[in-house]
Amino acid sequence: MRTVLLRLAAAVVVISLVATACGGDDPDETVATTATTQAATAATTQAPPAEEPAGPGNLVEVAVGSGAFPTLVAAVQAAGLVDVLSGDGPFTVFAPTEEAFAAALDALGMSPAELLGNTELLTAVLTYHVLPLEAPAEVVVTLDGESVATVNGAEVTVTVEDGTVRVNDATVVATDIEASNGIIHVIDTVLVPPELVGPGNLVEVAVGSGAFPTLVAAVQAAGLVDVLSGDGPFTVFAPTEEAFAAALDALGMSPAELLGNTELLTAVLTYHVLPLEAPAEVVVTLDGESVATVNGAEVTVTVEDGTVRVNDATVVATDIEASNGIIHVIDTVLIPPSSG
């Protein structure tokens, strides 16, 4: 009997050990674990690789996306330049601020609608803000004192002073806004191409030409800058440098002595100015006539075989336009009667 009981106890122990060893092998849990493992493996195997972050869009897309240039964007759209500025490039765009556009419209006396409706004007102005190359800030600062051609064809001048960069009269206020086909720099003034500005006044034109340094110095020394920068209109007979040299030689004077004689300078200079605008086509109709100058004395115009003379001076170039008159170039200094 005791032997039977020992065998039964041993059997119970064996069964218990087997049950303990197999206790975690619940059929449902095993199936679930296997399914989860397989799903994770499949997801890892089938998931596409992570995409690289997209780069910036083209210049138009970047300008639109920034929200900072609504007038510029509207102007580009109105001028039909979206395709151009969305093209390969590369381009550098000087983008005026909204305040810059508002100031430009005020100066032009135009409404936004009037500006956007003038396609020819828009195209000329917008293409003057675009360089046909990519010039980040580090390149722009190396252009100090240089003129750079724009897509318009006209040039802008870059200057750098005390860390401030200017393009013509506009100050660069933000730089290096990147696009896929170029770069944007922000400026505080709308750039107006030369063909839309028109010439300066007589003094500005004379200075800008570089052809009349002695005449300009004489006008400044005589205190006539304000007069010849005024409304006018005037016609100026401007002596060449050679003409001034010959006059000084005839008078036995040095340039310093001439410039120091304000009374003589004023009398001579005002004798070269008519108080009216007379382009070449008008001057030739004055053959044989005497015309009063700003000096008060008269000059005589003669025309012979296509050659025009004012007193004894020959007109060698005509119709240099200014906002307040016109310049004709002569080969001899005119001496008023009272100074002869």
Task: Describe how the helices and strands are arranged.
Elements: H1 2-21, H2 27-46, H3 59-66, H4 70-78, H5 82-85, E1 91-96, H6 98-108, H7 112-117, H8 119-127, E2 130-131, H9 137-140, E3 147-149, E4 155-161, E5 164-167, E6 170-179, E7 182-187, H10 194-197, H11 202-209, H12 213-221, H13 225-228, E8 234-239, H14 241-251, H15 255-260, H16 262-270, E9 273-274, H17 280-283, E10 290-292, E11 298-304, E12 307-310, E13 313-322, E14 325-330
Parallel strand pairs: 1-7, 8-14
Antiparallel strand pairs: 1-2, 3-4, 4-5, 5-6, 6-7, 8-9, 10-11, 11-12, 12-13, 13-14
Helix pairs in contact: 4-8, 12-16
Task: Give, in spatial order, the strands making up the sheet with the most strands.
Answer: 2-1-7-6-5-4-3
Low-confidence stretches: 1-45
Give the termini separation.
Answer: 165 Å
Average pLDDT, rounded to a whole number, is 87
What integer value in Å does the Rg equal? 41 Å
Task: Please give a structural write-up.
With 340 residues, the protein is of the alpha+beta class. 43% of the residues lie in helices and 22% in strands. It contains 17 helices and 14 strands. It has helices spanning 2-21, 27-46, 59-66, 70-78, 82-85, 98-108, 112-117, 119-127, 137-140, 194-197, 202-209, 213-221, 225-228, 241-251, 255-260, 262-270, 280-283; strands at residues 91-96, 130-131, 147-149, 155-161, 164-167, 170-179, 182-187, 234-239, 273-274, 290-292, 298-304, 307-310, 313-322, 325-330. The chain has a seven-stranded mixed sheet with strand order 2-1-7-6-5-4-3. A seven-stranded mixed sheet has the order 9-8-14-13-12-11-10. Helix 12 (213-221) packs across helix 16 (262-270). The relative contact order is 0.09.
